[in-house]
Recover the amino acids of this structure.
């Protein structure tokens, strides 16, 4: 199964589509078809994990590649573009390359498996503030980990400098709801104020390649 950790020697592409709830499953099926027939056979491909948001409004592909050059060759391949043409009718929301900058707790062993509950917190930041935001994320991640339902927190920094995201693995939806309601977690909604814009969605993992 795909693994997420700071020690991973991979490049991660996080690709997010906005979608109408009634078309969410169609989008998931279209991405999986493209992955199965084309993407997984490309040089440098490591893994792909498809997530659909609980509210029906997003589909996210968490994809790992051996190198940035491998990924660039993939997206610039005209033949690949033609085979993925069905995806053009869906709205691409965000697509960036990332590296894992913070992975906590230190002994976390996050493998992405079908059925997993993931909180993806997206932070849009000016490039000159990205390093500072990552340092704040290192400082405040311990507050979130006081909740036993948060199994791991993995902050990624985009290589273009304009994003960080937290790929957080949760035990249950109820545990995440506690994070939103309990005042002791309030610093998590404040530390990034003034330097970044934030939004988040909860996702269920619905597909992984490889499966083992």
């Amino acid at each position: 199964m795909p693994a997420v950790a700071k020690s991973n020697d991979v490049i991660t592409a996080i690709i997010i589509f906005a979608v109408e709830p009634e078309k969410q499953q169609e989008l998931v099926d279209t991405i999986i078809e493209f992955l199965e027939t084309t993407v997984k056979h490309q040089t440098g491909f490591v893994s792909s994990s498809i997530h659909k948001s609980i509210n029906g409004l997003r589909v996210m592909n968490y994809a790992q590649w051996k190198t940035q050059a491998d990924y660039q060759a993939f997206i610039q391949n005209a033949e690949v573009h033609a085979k993925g043409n069905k995806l053009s009718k869906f709205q691409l929301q965000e697509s960036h390359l990332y590296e894992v900058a913070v992975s906590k707790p230190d002994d976390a062993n996050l493998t992405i498996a079908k059925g997993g509950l993931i909180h993806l917190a997206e932070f849009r930041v000016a490039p000159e503030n990205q390093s500072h935001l990552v340092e704040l994320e290192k400082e405040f991640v311990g507050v979130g980990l006081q909740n036993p339902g948060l199994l791991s927190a993995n902050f990624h920094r985009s290589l273009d400098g304009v994003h960080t995201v937290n790929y957080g693995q949760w035990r249950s939806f109820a545990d995440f709801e506690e994070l939103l309601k309990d005042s002791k977690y309030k610093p998590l909604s404040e530390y990034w104020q003034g330097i970044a814009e934030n939004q988040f969605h909860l996702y269920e993992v619905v597909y992984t390649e490889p499966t083992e």
User: Anything to note?
Assistant: DSSP finds five helices and ten strands in the chain. The longest helix spans residues 130-144. The chain has a mean pLDDT of 93.
